[in-house]
Amino acid sequence: MARTVLITGGNRGIGYAIAEEFVRRGDRVAVTSRSGSGGPDGAVTVAADVTDAASVDAAFTEVEKQLGPVEVVVANAGITRDTLVLRMSEEDFTSVLDTNLTGAFRVVKRASKGMLKARFGRVVLISSVVGLYGGAGQVNYSSSKAALVGMARSLTRELGARGITANVVAPGFIETEMTAALPEEQQAEYRKAIPAGRFASSDEVAKVVAWVASDDAAYISGAVIPVDGGLGMGH
């Protein structure tokens, strides 16, 4: 059954691949980007800045008008400002939290209105292996991604009886333009730490997100699903 799906930050990288996968499955798909352009073919792209609640509300209103109530929301928009803790400014810290964590809250809060009315919903929060594994120079980013676990579990306790699930997907190293730009020795070093011995493709993450939003995963909620080739085991 086709559903209306909204993915934040769906104009590139993992978000783009997630949008493509939902389109491929026959869903009605919308993506947000700051510019309001750049989504995949078959998806509606709307402008939204997740650091601004009014902007998020306007994006949802537009998607609801074009595609109907949002039944699946994927909070994917995120930024990094990596630097060692002694050099990290308060603004480096708070700006990453405002986008990655409070941004997810704004999106989920707005989505939950329609989900509660429909007594159905799928919330998928895109975290990262470093959320629980940690990463040097990423105190801000890993804090924001770890907090999504508490968010999903609290949402599960609050909304679970209304047919709404909330889960976290935690990707590891993914083949993107960013990893491709790393020096070959550094890439080899990272691969050595991954039991699978390779980076993931964006599609491998996208398929897990689509599955956890499907009827097959209706009884899974508050879970953290790693897509990291075994890198973060036990964390």
Question: What is this structure, in a nutshell?
Answer:
It contains eight helices and seven strands. It has helices at residues 13-24, 53-67, 90-118, 130-133, 139-159, 177-180, 184-193, 202-212, and strands spanning 4-8, 28-33, 43-47, 72-75, 121-126, 164-171, 224-227.
Strand order of the largest sheet: 3-2-1-4-5-6-7
Number of helices: 8
Looking at this structure, what is the CATH superfamily? NAD(P)-binding Rossmann-like Domain
Question: Can you tell me the CATH class?
Answer: Alpha Beta
Low-confidence stretches: none
Please give the radius of gyration in angstroms: 17 Å
CATH architecture: 3-Layer(aba) Sandwich
* H/E series: EHEEHEHEHHEHHHE
Beta-strand residue fraction:
15-25%
- Largest sheet descriptor: 7 strands, parallel
What is the residue-mean pLDDT, rounded to a whole number? 96
Kindly name the structural category.
alpha/beta
